[in-house]
Amino acid sequence: MQQGPAPPTLLADCTGALVAGGHASRLHGLAKGLLQIEGEPIVARSLRLFRQLFSTALVVANDSAPYAAFGAPVVPDVIGGKGAPSGLHTALTAARTEWVFTAACDMPFLAPEPIMWLATRREGVRAVVVLWHGQLEPLHAFWSRACLPLVERMLREGNPSMWMIAIAVGAKLVLEEEWRLVDPDGRAFANANTPEDAARLGLKFP
């Protein structure tokens, strides 16, 4: 029996970019995206969600080996050594869509509803970033490829923070009280930087 056509992506103008970053020294060298939730690597779960929501998905990682088996292109930093801004720049460079949604590779609780809600805030701006507990969440955010020339110039001229980039591109800041309407506890932003974080979030080492 023939299967029907695959359902259309919800955001055809967007690429989902999973930013894996560099060495996870605080996790004994394990690539953070390989931490497991309910028996599945975070990266596998995140890429599956991205394929449901976006036209394409990719991984930004300088070491492709941990992520090569998950079926998405793995792209190394174009301008290395500058942390999350390098990852953002690489995602914008590699994407062929108007928009990029960035997420960190160690965010186990990405969910479609908050992402789609955030997508509705894109009109008339070049980026949409949540302000949570007084901090920006730039790795759960939408960035237009129109940001690319400015981001590239800032990286080539210095070491900008993600906050500096967000301000420079005129990002729309979603306030905490707004975000709580869709994600009351900020669960989407939870991530695992240390073994203690992993244990608290119920993540397992493979």
Description of the structure:
By secondary structure, the protein is of the alpha/beta class. The protein has a single domain, classed as Spore Coat Polysaccharide Biosynthesis Protein SpsA, Chain A. The protein is 28% helix and 24% strand. The chain is built from 7 helices and 9 strands; from the N terminus they run βββαββαβαββααβαα. Helix 2 runs antiparallel to helix 4.
Number of individual domains: 1
Mean pLDDT: 93
The rounded Rg comes to 16 Å
**What is the number of helices?**
7
The major pleated sheet works out as: 7 strands, mixed
CATH topology: Spore Coat Polysaccharide Biosynthesis Protein SpsA, Chain A
CATH architecture: Alpha-Beta Complex
Name the CATH superfamily assignment. Answer: Spore Coat Polysaccharide Biosynthesis Protein SpsA, Chain A
Q: In order across it, which strands form the biggest sheet?
A: 5-4-1-6-8-7-9
Q: What would you call the shape?
A: globular
Name the poorly predicted regions.
Answer: none
N-to-C series of helices and strands = EEEHEEHEHEEHHEHH
What does the secondary structure layout of this molecule look like, with pairings?
Blueprint: E1 11-21, E2 36-37, E3 40-41, H1 42-53, E4 54-61, E5 74-75, H2 84-94, E6 99-104, H3 112-119, E7 127-132, E8 135-144, H4 148-157, H5 162-168, E9 172-174, H6 176-179, H7 195-200
Parallel strand pairs: 1-4, 1-6, 4-5, 7-9
Antiparallel strand pairs: 2-3, 6-8, 7-8
